[in-house]
Design brief:
By secondary structure, this protein is an alpha/beta fold. It has 2 domains: 132 residues, 3-Layer(aba) Sandwich (Rossmann fold), CATH 3.40.50.2300; 96 residues, Arc Repressor Mutant, subunit A (Orthogonal Bundle). The chain has a 5-stranded parallel beta sheet with strand order 2-1-3-4-5, with helices on both faces. Helix 5 links the parallel strand 4 and strand 5.
């Protein structure tokens, strides 16, 4: 992305709406202060059962969602949000077990961060996720086998039927469609999709691939569109069988 395009994205990010769902008041206040200082509009909720109504009414641009919240836990909330919206979601968790993080990603979260964390790191993650969502695209279409992406509208299709993808799933498919014969390692996909790398995230790419396969299979049953190259990574399968 050139300097002019990057500046345009930065201007667009100013005053974007962030929803922080966190029942620890001090953590929520610190996150709000840092995000407001970075130019975001911030709303805070301390209960999971209030989130869906807020999303429907105020339509936040990104959600920071704690897993352990009263009213309705974050994983259930994430699942419910994905039934009505593709808004980017960053899960926040005090649980260090990998399965908790993977489960959140399988439900449609775009990223996760573990407590304790640096507020600056959270702001950096928010910036990275929104930059990907706002990056200007050329008016072109990527096609391979029965897959298609229309970059201008960020829409994806399989067998002519539209796929409802999260931002991370869309970016994964876009990266692979741009180089359909290439084998991508997990680390390459992390860097291409997330825009940064950190320990442990390469394995969570498997969750995003699993979700993407499931959605494609709903439109193209009995076709293996994304192949696993064991010990290496993933590539698109031109035959689909």
């Amino acid at each position: 992305m050139g300097a002019r395009e990057l500046n345009a994205v930065r201007r667009q990010m100013m005053s974007m709406r962030v929803l922080v769902v966190e029942d620890e008041i001090k953590i929520a206040e610190v996150l709000k202060d840092y995000l407001v200082s970075s130019g975001y509009e911030v709303a805070c909720l301390d209960r999971g059962d209030l989130v869906l109504t807020h999303v429907k009414v105020y339509q936040p641009d990104i959600i920071l969602l704690d897993i352990m919240i009263p009213g309705r836990n974050g994983l259930d909330v994430c699942r419910a949000i994905r039934e009505l919206s593709s808004v980017p979601i960053i899960m926040i968790t005090a649980r260090v077990e990998e399965m908790d993080r993977l489960l959140g990603l399988e439900l449609g979260a775009d990223d996760y961060i573990c407590k304790p964390f640096s507020p600056r790191e959270v702001v950096a993650r928010v910036n990275a996720v929104l930059r990907r969502a706002l990056s200007p695209v050329l008016k072109k279409t990527l096609r391979f086998f029965d897959l298609e992406i229309v970059e201008e509208s960020r829409r994806a299709f399989a067998g002519g039927a539209e796929l409802r993808l999260t931002p991370c799933e869309y970016n994964l498919l876009k990266v692979m469609l741009a180089s359909p014969e290439r084998i991508f390692s997990r680390n390459e996909l992390v860097n291409a999709v997330q825009g940064y790398d950190f320990e442990g995230y390469d394995r969570t790419i498997d969750s995003h691939i699993k979700n993407l396969r499931k959605k494609i299979a709903g439109r193209l049953p009995d076709k293996e569109i994304i192949r696993t190259i064991y010990g290496v990574g993933y590539k698109l399968n031109s035959g689909g069988d």
